[in-house]
Amino acid sequence: MNEAEKSINILNSSPDSKLYEYKLGIERITMELVKFGLTKTQAKVFIYLGKYGSKSSPEVCKDLKLPRTETYHVLNELTNRGIVVSEFSYPTKFSAIPMEKAISTMVKTEQTKIGMLAEKEKEITQLWHQIPCFFTKSNEPECEKFQMLQGSSRIHSKMQNMISNSKIGCKLLCGAKDLSRFYYSNLIEIFEASSSNMKLLISSDVLVPHLIQNMNKSSIRSWPKNMAKNQCFLLKDDDELLIFLRNANFPTRNIFAFWTNSKSLIDSICLLFDYSWDHSKPIKQANLIISELGN
User: Fold this and answer.
1) Which of 70, 72, 206, 278 has the fewest Cβ atoms within 10 angstroms?
2) Statement to judge: residues 60 and 186 lie in one domain
């Protein structure tokens, strides 16, 4: 590797660089680390330290082209999380702990948070019911509602709740990129395990993950490849609808969805799904490495 190549790291490599072939993998890892609560910048710094060894704050700032103040705060936050350690040196250098240990540390941290919240559940609920309501419930029919959701974690959590509480069945229409994200967030596993009637309509019978291949083939169909790839929605029991306004074709944080129990809108989307289902075709067997879906 010559001096020019040494000045280029995986994270800022260009398509004509030898390192670019690794950049796609790094971007995939970054997306997964964000799910553990890291920001993209924190994930970027952690990956950089893990692949380029211990570095001082000025070196991280220079190599990753980050503002000096932001670099300091990011390194401090990663140290506080226990996935980056500082060394006794001048200037102080920072290094990342092994990836498997970092993931284990972050998982245990989240489990501890969940455990603490679970312990408070009963206490908070009891306190809540001790406080009276200061309004009178109306006998008028309940108004139709809607909710705006941003970010994949919030949206996927809502979808998991819809699928888990389904009594009649769910209808999911999505493209290949959406399917990939649903697969890695365990949505597909929950969808498959549901005891209600499930229908999955995907945009191509070529891009089919292995897990979906194990599902009941009669519950999966593919729609024409030339149809728009930005369409994605979930219908639950024909009484709830979650529709993506910005789907997996956008960055994770920019994903935007709209939930509603509006009967007129649900009926319209249900007609669209049923029509698409009737004019779609059964999926074919396909062998695919899952990582291809995320590229």
Assistant:
1) 278
2) no
Token digits of residue 15: 């398509």
**pLDDT tens-digit profile, the chain (295 residues):** 444 444 456 666 666 666 667 777 888 888 889 888 899 999 999 999 999 999 999 999 999 999 999 999 999 999 999 999 998 888 899 999 999 999 999 888 888 888 888 888 888 888 888 888 887 776 767 788 899 998 888 899 899 999 999 999 999 998 878 887 888 788 888 888 877 788 998 876 545 555 566 677 778 888 766 566 678 999 999 899 999 998 877 777 778 999 999 999 999 999 999 998 998 888 764 433 333 334 3
The model's pTM is 0.58
Q: Which two tokens stand for residue 272?
A: 């669209």
| Residue at 41 is within a domain | yes
Total number of domains constituting the chain = 2
Element (H, E) at 149: strand 146-150
